[in-house]
Write a structure and sequence with these properties.
By secondary structure, the protein is mainly alpha-helical. It is built from 5 helices and 6 strands, in the order ααββαββαββα.
Length: about 150
């Protein structure tokens, strides 16, 4: 698998990708929808449009999940806590909170993560020394420069 100079190989398919993405006998490009989705990633084609907002999707399944969010439907329940989710993938990611599973590891230092995007952010901010792509949810107070302002009347 070729890698770009900006993004070195983060993990290998056979070792660290979740098993649900591959079956033992079927190449990943022949599985239902995978090749179509892959091709649409290159072309930018998004034929499935939401009727409630401007969002468009490459796969019908993604549109169905999106519409559930508009309707507030959360059919996937966690068996460990009261959280509910609109799609199965979100539930699977959440379950790692309870199991402690961290299937994604950094190619550079071996640090493990529960989500693949966390590896990418880690590599950007730690190994490539780029600023963090996320802003803090808490607003910071401006620094007090110990300057007193005189009120002129």
């Amino acid at each position: 698998m070729p890698t770009s100079s900006r993004w070195p190989l983060l993990f290998t398919q056979s070792e660290n990708l979740p098993s649900r993405t591959r079956s033992a006998d079927t190449p990943i490009t022949q599985q239902k929808g995978v090749l179509t989705y892959h091709q649409r990633k290159h072309t930018g084609e998004t034929p499935y449009a939401c009727t409630l907002c401007p969002k468009k999707y490459a796969l019908h399944e993604y549109l169905k999940v999106h519409i559930r969010k508009h309707k507030g439907e959360t059919p996937y329940e966690c068996g460990e806590c009261p959280k509910k989710f609109a799609d199965k993938a979100a539930l699977s990611r959440h379950l790692r909170v309870h199991t402690g599973e961290k299937p994604y590891s950094c190619f550079h230092c071996g640090k493990c993560f529960s989500q693949s995007n966390s590896v990418k952010v880690h590599i950007q901010t730690v190994h490539f020394k780029e600023p963090t792509p996320y802003k803090s949810k808490m607003r910071r107070k401006p620094k007090d420069n110990n300057m007193d302002l005189a009120i002129i009347s």
